[in-house]
Specification:
190 residues, alpha+beta, globular
């Protein structure tokens, strides 16, 4: 019986050692949502279950951080295609009043976004996206200061697992993060 126990322990350790895992830095459940895409379709958390996805928070009339963030997400999409990595990209608008599906569609086109795996979401009020950003992604989100149209928001990309849990945060403005995300996706998708 003791030998059987030892054999089970050794086999368990062997199997654990075989499966590579990524280093995570978050563990947050994504709250349920159902929002409108740039194509006027609905995308919900339920539809994303079973898939790996990368999320960020942007808005189309942003004059600072959204430019490199969306450019980096576009580069990430290109690298994912090159590497044949099947994951979804989701950009939540933090200015839903301005960012209608039509505005988001035009914005997506300006970055050559392929809508087959990159959704730009709107169709909610500011408080709803603020709560999702803070509670699910631990990402700051504040209305524009008086006299400005520039929303204050976080600049991270987030890796979400098929169970709907945010497991890793990356810099969305640093292009070096693209290679790290691709490396992590290769590990989790194998």
């Amino acid at each position: 019986m003791k030998r059987l126990h030892i054999l089970v322990v050794v086999l368990t350790l062997f199997l654990v050692a075989c499966g590579e895992e990524i280093d995570t830095n978050m563990s947050r459940e994504v709250e349920d949502f159902s929002f409108t895409t740039q194509d006027k379709e609905t995308l919900s958390l339920e539809e994303l279950k079973g898939k790996w996805w990368v999320a960020d928070f942007i808005f189309t009339n942003c004059t600072t951080v959204c430019l490199p963030m969306t450019s980096n997400m576009s580069k990430l999409q290109g690298k994912m295609k090159e590497e044949n990595l099947d994951a979804q990209l989701v950009s939540f608008s933090v200015d839903p009043k301005h960012d209608t599906p039509e505005v988001l569609k035009e914005y997506a086109a300006s970055y050559q976004a392929d809508s087959s795996n990159w959704a730009f979401l709107t169709g909610y009020d500011f408080q709803t996206i603020k709560e999702l950003s803070i509670k699910s992604f631990q990402s700051l989100l504040e209305k524009p200061p008086e006299g400005s149209d520039q929303v204050t928001h976080g600049t991270s990309f987030f890796l979400v697992n098929p169970e709907g849990k945010v497991i890793k945060r990356y810099s969305g403005v640093d292009s070096k993060s693209i290679d790290e995300i691709v490396k992590d996706l290769k590990i989790v998708l194998e």
